[in-house]
Write a structure and sequence with these properties.
The chain is an alpha/beta fold. The chain folds into 2 domains: 135 residues, Rossmann fold; 141 residues, 3-Layer(aba) Sandwich (Rossmann fold), CATH 3.40.50. The strands form 2 sheets. A 5-stranded parallel beta sheet has the order 7-6-5-8-9, with no helix packed on it. The structure holds N-carbamoyl-L-aspartate. The site of N-carbamoyl-L-aspartate (NCD) has 13 residues, from α2 and α6.
């Protein structure tokens, strides 16, 4: 599960039904994954994602092992991602990975005999947050069709935004309003995806002007850790803040979502407003992850791509893209191919297969 596009529409519906069933009959799932083990490899800080995966696995009767500080593992001794993954794949039934480099989960999947779940790769994707968001939206609104969703905050570096947009492009029938300062606008590849999907996208830098039209306001924090220049972060971090005053311009049935953590962009006074659903959203994230783990841990083992030597074809190249024979480097310095230079070439139809950056 590298990005949301790895799920078919039917698979998503199946997960959602399972999610509803778990909410209704949690006791039925108490032993569903007894004897199974999840590897949890967090190369970057996390609260909700890591803890909700761990809680999800434990509520299904399974076990979890792993690290949340890579410097306490052999990564500190210079071990490659490849070697860590090959080894961990022998210990576990599925692997969840968060990494600061874009494309890391896709790279890991080349070396794993068990399913790899992307828990966030740099600024790129965060598909299980998207599952969380869609499950919460579907539960609250019955689906995304016809909704106007405001995406607000750090649209440039926010991987939750990028993954959610990928999913919304697939569902169609949704309208999106982008609310950000120009310096934190959506990357070109995500804009191209919206255009290709034909979803209506409006841009409104002022939250006060945008809020009255929204069904959902999806807030995000400015991603401090992605800034090369801390002064630039300080300059931009408090430019868009949801206050009770701004919220007074919103509809009574609007809902406020946030992947969390927040870093000041939602005033704490807003927490008491019934439209604020971000803590409930986080709770539901554990349940949809239970539904996902049920599917992933039960998959049969497969021969990893690096042994099949077909890393230039099939799923592992983001299927459908034609590999080029030319030796290419990805221009994105945060792409995993720079940190792990033994990886197969990034080529794929002019776009890096790992991080989606344009190769031209
Ligand atoms: C997000 C993330 O890590 O991308 N958090 C999360 O997983 N719920 C959002 C963020 O860190 O801003």
């Amino acid at each position: 599960m590298i990005d949301f596009s790895d799920l078919t529409q039917r698979e998503w519906q199946h997960l959602y039904h399972r999610f509803e069933d778990i909410l209704e009959h949690p006791g039925d799932y108490r032993d569903a994954l007894r004897g199974q083990t999840l590897a949890s490899l967090f190369y970057e800080p996390s609260t909700r994602t890591r803890l909700s995966f761990e809680a999800a696995m434990q509520r299904l009767g399974g076990g979890v092992f792993g690290f949340s500080d890579p410097m306490a593992s052999s990564v500190a001794k210079g071990e490659t991602l490849k070697d860590t993954v090959i080894m961990v794949t022998g210990y576990s039934d599925a692997m969840v990975m968060r990494h600061p480099c874009e494309g890391a989960a896709l790279a890991a999947s080349l070396f794993s005999a068990r399913p790899v779940i992307n828990a966030g790769d740099g600024c790129h994707c965060h598909p299980t947050q998207t599952l969380t968001d869609l499950a919460a939206i579907t539960r609250l609104f019955g689906g995304v069709d016809g909704l106007r969703i405001g995406l607000c905050g750090d649209l440039k570096y926010g991987r939750t935004i990028h993954s959610l947009l990928t999913a919304l492009c697939r569902f169609g029938g949704v309208k999106v309003t982008l609310v950000s300062v120009p310096e934190l606008a959506l990357p070109a590849y995500a804009k191209r995806a919206c255009d290709a999907a034909g979803i209506q996208v409006a841009e409104e830098p002022d939250l006060r002007s945008a809020i009255g039209d929204l069904d959902i306001l999806y807030m995000t924090r400015v991603q401090r850790e992605r800034f090369a220049d801390p002064a630039e972060y300080e300059r931009l971090k408090d430019r868009v803040i949801l206050t009770p005053d701004i919220l007074s311009g919103a509809r009574k049935d609007m809902r406020i979502m946030h992947p969390l953590p927040r870093a000041g962009e939602i005033d704490m006074e807003v927490d008491r407003d019934p439209r604020a659903v971000y803590f409930e959203q986080a709770r539901l994230g554990m349940v949809i992850r239970m539904a996902l783990l049920l599917e992933m841990c039960r998959l049969p083992s497969f021969t990893p791509a690096y042994i099949r030597d077909d890393t230039e074809s099939g799923r592992h190249t983001n299927s459908g893209r034609t590999p080029s024979q030319a030796v290419l480097r990805c221009p994105n310095l945060s792409c995993i191919t720079h940190k792990e230079p033994y990886l197969p070439l990034p080529a794929g139809d002019g776009v890096c297969r790992y991080c989606d950056s344009s190769l031209t």
